[in-house]
Amino acid sequence: MGFSGNGMFQFFKKIGSRLGQKIRFLFGAKIDEASYEELESLFYEADLGAPLSAELVEQIRALLKKNPDLPSDKILQEIRASLLRFFQPPLPIPPASPHIILIVGVNGSGKTTSLAKLAAHYRKQGKKVVIAAGDTFRAASVEQLERWAKAIGADLIKSQPNSDPSAVAFDALAAAKARGADVVLIDTAGRLQTKTELMQELAKIRRICDKQIPGSPQETLLVLDATIGQNALDQAKAFHSFTPLTGLILTKLDGSAKGGIAVAIQKELKIPILWTGTGEAAEDFQPFDAPAFIDALLNLE
Ligand SMILES: Nc1nc2c(ncn2[C@@H]2O[C@H](COP(=O)(O)OP(=O)(O)OP(=O)(O)O)[C@@H](O)[C@H]2O)c(=O)[nH]1
Ligand SMILES: [Mg+2]
Asked: What is the pTM of this model?
């Protein structure tokens, strides 16, 4: 899927995140203690989180102590390098057929939409895709998936309302084997990370998958709404403790997201961000590109 950093950059421009410009402005004037305090607030407001904001300020302070005349461009480059260090390329996933992907997250984070976008991505590669309507909680979610599956050309496996989502996953994997599908995407109902019982349900879905196809699901992706800031970090931690996550999908970057949360999550959890959502349509979906993302965050081109 072709992706240049410019696409993501435009979204940050639109939402008016001006972190880079503000830093430039700050260091274009005389630097005193208040400048460092202001810098820390700027980092914090960009959703980088308190520990990282403080760390970055100390780093810049030390840098300017050694080299008081450092131009603001160089300061921004230093910040860019520091932020990029947190991003590691994701580990390759051993090929499997069918390849099973479980999609999890809190209510309304963009799970079903992201699942559909992923399905569209695999369909474009010519893969045969089965979707499991594992959100048996809301009838509307099955209808939502029915529309997507039809538009994309994927098979949908569904069950009765309020049935066990593990059973839907089981049926979908059986169908995938029988039909020779390449990819299975399992939707799940939104759940609060604090509801233990619902979180345990995810572990059950994983167990059932593993029983049906040993080693599956190969991927468990947490969908995070980037506009909720630091709360996304808490969600990621909680989901990861109940069900080991292999990757993240960061959605709604076209909204009021500040973006720094991506760095905070990488720093703390080291779970790779694999995909980004930048709208409601199937094509508003790009593989995560760390350098382009950081450039967008810092308004660098
Ligand atoms: N602007 C924007 N809207 C998005 C994005 N991803 C999803 N949405 C919208 O967010 C809303 C919720 O998306 P869903 O995919 O239904 O979210 P969900 O996590 O499946 O929700 P539940 O199943 O109710 O938990 C819908 O209106 C989507 O169109 C995105 O990247 N950008
Ligand atoms: Mg849904």
From this structure: 0.94
